[in-house]
């Protein structure tokens, strides 16, 4: 091995690193400045005393964490997890067939169908949530219609309860469930299904034993895309829940924007971040298992 | 292949849209400190060509007023928006009390800004029109003598209701807690901490500024019981709920009740319950850090002019504590929106909201969370 060869290898190494830097640099810098630093500030704040008018007084304390263990806040967190879980499950049940339909459509229909899925994102989320208030309220369109047809005598309580909140969250994040599932279905292609049918599997068996297991990464990604923002949402519980169903996002918002208690708000925000890490760990586990299946190793 | 690329693109656009939507719109933002000319407040200061940075609630002042001020004085107004008192407090806390020349905040926050040393002492000699203020407005408990603030608007909180939908005229805050059958699930209360506990405190005969843990606890129980009778807690759309008939009776600020009356003048009424209510006031505060106090004073003085204040009142439907202004308001408007005729004396009978302090604020916030959870 000559000196020259070693030099070329080192030069190649440098080039690879240079390339990595160019590709990753901008994203990493952005992430560092606009995500990691704020989260760091949040963590730091959570260990200090609140300032009387917002801000913090730099006296270390663990009181904020002790306070978060109060059953009041644990209860709110539990409600949030429950609502977000139900919303995710409903979104999955609605999205999987829809994604399957789109994936099986002829290629000239696929793009228009996908555009329809994301079309709602082109208007403000706030306006769409207000629109739901118009639809669901006791004197609203849905109740009026049902009364006119004679299906009900008294208006149904559709608004300002947990049902409305769940509905609002499903509506808001459904496209985020459809897209990753569609992507994984499309990646799978029709061959696996055809092979399964050749081996005399019924369509239901194919779906259960082939399609769903192989699109699990898409399902898990979709579930995370719906669960995580649902958990932290505060607009939907505020508007559609009428402020009577409180989720953790509302309490965090209240700490920062009404109670002027930044450190305690930071602790609550951290609790959501920790929950997300748990969810992401589950995802990683699922992905590894699927990878093993795909690689043909025993699961 | 291009199909797949498109899907990725869609996903990215979708997520970006979602994030943007979730963040909401905050057009105000912080603007750099204004004014280059450091001329100290000597006699006639030439303010033309300078910049004045103001932060106010959205739609709380007609745009024409700002434009006219700019034309008359040659000052450029950087007009920022805050959504709540806490919002502007957050911006100021982040910048250690700098970044604005003049901010609009509610009474309790005048105390906060003063305690932090961020509110300038107001030089009354630079605001001749301050003499137009009602006597009551010069002795508001959060800032007697207008040392650090000049009241912009004031008002009270009461019950706003549809006279055609209630069987009897409401006269007590008890209505929320002991709802007659026809009002079950037909009422809303305000959800912001300071007003959430007020019907309870007033019913129970306590101060609206109480920091007594036992009283707050009692008020909390009262409100939790009342929650069972409510349609919702609502701070923003309660008047449209009245107009649509979704609600029959709501806890409302006087001016916002008028927004409902504007759409249904025949049936919507406002009443201050027998137990009384609060007196709130939104004020103008000049910041100590401002390098253009002369322009800030000129702006305040301009707002206090009868022909300018009149435009504010007619636009916001809130009262100004300023007899000259109220006299200038079109009588037809006062006739249509009778809360504009509530006299300063009657307002002053209500208890003025003041700052709750650190411990008080925590007690109130915990009660609010527990009520809503």
* Alpha carbon gap, first and last residue of chain B: 50 Å
The count of helical stretches of chain B stands at: 16
Number of helices of chain A: 13
* Top CATH class of the largest domain in chain B: Alpha Beta
Q: Kindly estimate the percentage of residues of chain B that lie in beta strands according to DSSP.
A: 15-25%
Range of strand content of chain A: under 5%
Low-confidence regions of chain B: 17-42
Number of structurally distinct domains of chain A: 1
Order of helices and strands of chain B: HEHEHEHEHEHHHEHEHEEHHHHHEH
Tell me which CATH architecture of chain A applies here. Answer: Orthogonal Bundle
Structure report:
Chain A is an all-alpha fold and 299 residues long. Chain A has one domain: MetI-like fold, CATH 1.10.3720.10. In chain A, 76% of the residues lie in helices and 3% in strands. Chain A has a two-stranded antiparallel sheet. In chain B, strands 1, 2, 3, 4, 5, 6, 7, 8, 9 and 10 form a 10-stranded mixed sheet that branches. In chain B, strand 1 (51-57), helix 2 (63-73) and strand 2 (76-82) form a beta-alpha-beta unit. In chain B, helix 7 packs across helix 8 (213-227) and helix 9 (238-244) runs parallel beside helix 10 (254-263). At the A-B interface, helix 3, helix 4, helix 5, helix 7 and helix 12 of A face helix 1, helix 3, strand 6 and helix 16 of B.
Q: What's the short version?
A:
With 299 residues, chain A is an all-alpha fold.
Features:
heterodimer, A: about 300 residues, mainly alpha, MetI-like fold, two-stranded antiparallel ribbon, about 75% helix, about 5% strand, flat, B: about 375 residues, alpha/beta, D-Maltodextrin-Binding Protein, domain 2, 2 domains, 10-stranded mixed sheet, 16 helices, 10 strands, globular
Topology:
The complex is a heterodimer of chains A (299) and B (373).
Chain A: H1 3-45, E1 48-50, E2 56-60, H2 63-68, H3 71-104, H4 107-118, H5 125-136, H6 141-149, H7 162-188, H8 191-198, H9 203-214, H10 216-232, H11 235-239, H12 248-257, H13 262-294
Antiparallel strand pairs in A: 1-2
Helix pairs in contact in A: 3-7, 3-10, 7-10, 8-9, 10-13, 12-13
Chain B: H1 2-23, E1 51-57, H2 63-73, E2 76-82, H3 85-94, E3 102-106, H4 107-115, E4 150-162, H5 174-177, E5 187-189, H6 193-196, H7 198-204, H8 213-227, E6 230-233, H9 238-244, E7 249-253, H10 254-263, E8 268-271, E9 278-286, H11 293-303, H12 306-316, H13 323-328, H14 331-336, H15 344-348, E10 351-352, H16 357-372
Helix pairs in contact in B: 7-8, 8-16, 9-10
